[in-house]
Amino acid sequence: MKTSKAVRSIRSLSDKEIESCIDGTTSIPMLKDIFSLPNVINKDGFIFTDLFADRFAKYLQGFLDDEVGSDEWIEADNINYDWGLRIACNINELLSVHEYMD
Question: Is the distance from CB of 88 to CB of 53 less than 8 angstroms?
Answer without folding.
Answer: yes
